[in-house]
Amino acid sequence: MSKGENTRERLMDIAQAGILSKGFWATSIDEIIAEAGITKSGFFYHFKDKNELARALLERYIALEEQLFDDIFSRARELHDDPLHAFMIGLKLLSETMADLPNGHPGCMVATVCYSERMFDNEVRDLNRKAVLAWRTRFLAMLEEIAERYPPRDDVDLKAVADMMSSTAEGGIVMSKAVGDPKVLSQQILLFRSYIRLLFLPESH
Amino acid sequence: MSKGENTRERLMDIAQAGILSKGFWATSIDEIIAEAGITKSGFFYHFKDKNELARALLERYIALEEQLFDDIFSRARELHDDPLHAFMIGLKLLSETMADLPNGHPGCMVATVCYSERMFDNEVRDLNRKAVLAWRTRFLAMLEEIAERYPPRDDVDLKAVADMMSSTAEGGIVMSKAVGDPKVLSQQILLFRSYIRLLFLPESH
DNA sequence: TGTACATCAGTGAACGCGCGTTCACTGATGTAC
DNA sequence: TGTACATCAGTGAACGCGCGTTCACTGATGTAC
User: Fold this and answer.
1) Partner residue opposite A117 with nearest CB, options B21, B131, B198
2) Bridge-partner residues for B157, per DSSP?
3) CA nearest to A30, candidates A44, A51, A13
4) Cβ(A128)–Cβ(B178) below 8 Å
């Protein structure tokens, strides 16, 4: 990795930490460069403006999240061949991963963009939309495989159930932040898991 | 209502609309007073600083939300005496209310505060925490009454299930905003309802 | 091996603008005697 | 009924600061011949 890429990466790390705790427009370039030990013009060498920083950050964040989902749910599939049980294992792993993050999940970039939408350019907001729709697709595929084998015990739209995974995460992050308790997020993921169990798993006799 | 209270209320309405769509610090006082047709000093007559506006807004928002919950769930209780069925009816009503809002739910003030926490003073953040904890208490009471009559079919912490109501709403709002589809929020509430049904309602034979 | 040029990764100074905030003042309405 | 004073609901001008952005320049490294 060249010196430049390194600096760029560092700027993004610093920016992300600030943004996730304070919001995008409350995190100033001055603040970022002070921590990075660089001049403001150096910042603008790496990003042509602040929206480009937002876009780069969002892209990286989404890619990382995709990676995390890939890892967790393919690991889960290795542990159990049945799609339902594999999904349940994956949700447990996800819940543990979220609980283990230093001070809980640091907050979600996607939500950050949502809560100040007017201030980002179209490209950034579009990126955001696509990420959420990609999550929907990912989880819908899993749920369809499950539903084939296990007829759902309630009349639900699987697409909405797929969205529920993301919604649970986003809602859990907000709640964790609001009450100041990181455990809430992993608890909520476990409740989603409980719903999946009750929805698909046949009554044990 | 005096002239002053009227103006104050109008300032808050205008501010809220801006804040819910763009975020708090992206909504400038200039913008608010331009729409209100008042001078900036007039604004500072009503609110000693911007944090006081935030606090007033949050207080009003929380009170309104409490009122909404009161109305919906007491109406539901009128319609059915059983706590579980009443809760299910309430959730249906809530889902419909959310779907009927002009362009979906405009976004949640509580989450707005969460996503730029550092920028608010302690008092505002505390208000936020208390509101969420009040929701927990409210729904926990309902769930305990239900659980007494209907033993849950999965081993869950009722406090977490109570939080799930708020979490579902917050997550649903984020998702609705992200994909630009107001329906997502009411769908998510219905899925929470489906969970409650599966969790408490005995198998029909 | 030396020279010429190009690219990379920045520096330093200056910019204009919008923001929240202050402060001295004012005209209209309400209240006391 | 008239006068004095107080409060309400603002006005108008000025403030300083921090913000994102620009632009001309630079020293170090890489590449071509």
Assistant:
1) B21
2) none
3) A44
4) yes
Nearest residue to B115 (alpha-carbon basis) of A175, A142, A50 = A175
Average pLDDT of the segment spanning A149-156: 98
Q: Which of B23, B112, B191 sits opposite A160 (nearest CB)?
A: B191
Tokens of A43: 């910042």
Q: Which residues contact A129 (CB under 8 A, 6 or more apart)?
A: B178, B179, B180
Residues in chain B within 8 Å Cβ distance of A115: 23, 107, 111-112, 115-116, 174, 177
pLDDT confidence of A52, banded at 50, 70, 90? very high
DSSP string, A137-158: HHHHHHHHHHHHHS--SS---H
In a mutational test of the B interface, the residue from A167, A181, A190, A196 whose CB has the highest number of chain B CBs within 10 Å is A167
Q: Are B183 and B103 in contact (CB under 8 A)?
A: no
A132 Cβ neighbours under 8 A, 6+ residues apart:
A110, A166, B175, B178, B179
Residue A32 C-beta-side C-alpha neighbours within 13 Å: 29
Higher-confidence residue: A1 or B35? B35
Q: In sequence order, what are the residues at sequence separation of 6 or more whose Cβ sits closer than 8 angstroms to the Cβ of residue A80?
A: A86, A89
Cα distances (angstroms) measured from residue B60 to each of A134, B3, B91, B100: 37, 19, 23, 21
Which of helix, strand or coil describes residue A104?
strand
pLDDT score for B155: 97
Dihedral angle over CA of A92, A93, A98, A101, nearest 10: 140
Q: Which residue has the tokens 């430049």?
A: A4
B119 vs B130 pLDDT, higher one: B130
- Which pLDDT belongs to residue A17? 93
Asked whether the beta carbons of residue B166 and residue A171 sit closer than 8 angstroms, the reply is: yes
Q: CA–C1' distance B34–C26 (Å)?
A: 22
- Convert the pLDDT of each residue in B135-184 to its tens digit: 999 999 999 999 999 999 999 999 999 999 999 999 999 999 999 999 99
Domains of chain B and CATH, by start: 1-47 (1.10.10), 50-200 (1.10.357.10)
